[in-house]
Amino acid sequence: MNASQRDEQAQNLGLLFLRVAGGLFLLWVHGLPKLLHFSEQLQLIEDPFRLGPHLTLLLAIFAEVLCPLLIVAGVLARLACLPILFVLLVALLLVHPQWSVAEGQFGWLLLILFSTVLIAGPGRLAFGARLPGVLRYA
Q1: Pick from 60, 77, 58: which is nearest to 19 by CA?
Q2: 3-state SS string for 44-92
Q3: Cβ-contact 116, 16 below 8 angstroms
Q4: What is the arithmetic mean of pLDDT over 93-110?
Q5: Cα–chain-centroid distance for residue 123?
Q6: How far is C-alpha 52 from the geometric centre of its chain's CA atoms?
Q7: Which helix (H) or strand (E) holds 9?
Q8: Rounded to an integer, what distance in angstroms lies between the CA atom of residue 134 and that of residue 138?
Q9: pTM of the prediction?
Q10: pLDDT, tens only, 50-78
Q11: 137 or 54: which carries more pLDDT confidence?
Q12: CB 59 within 8 Å of CB 47
């Protein structure tokens, strides 16, 4: 294996780690609590677009449960980043605009992480890497 192949392998391992760690972290900290405690979360969720708490919570669950699972698997990973980034931007800019960078650091770090996956893609160590054509890059 030459140096170029080692570099590519290291990049793919790095993207795998980023996808899996970030996706599972978002799922564990935000997604599963919303899914498992749906009724309680209905009382707590902010509704900045006035869609109603039920629809707002369902959209948040989509972004914080289904999308991270797709990213972890590397299937439609770039596309799956978009709802997550939207929810993060809404939370940071509309729901909690009073937060300092220190108070919102978790959200900002997730924004950086999923923006990186959006830009770089899932890498070759992804189930999506075996999909045909446009699906591979979505």
Answers
A1: 77
A2: HCCCCCCCCHHHHHHHHHHHHHHHHHHHHHCCCHHHHHHHHHHHHHHHH
A3: no
A4: 95
A5: 16
A6: 23
A7: helix 3-26
A8: 6
A9: 0.91
A10: 999 999 999 999 999 999 999 999 999 99
A11: 54
A12: no
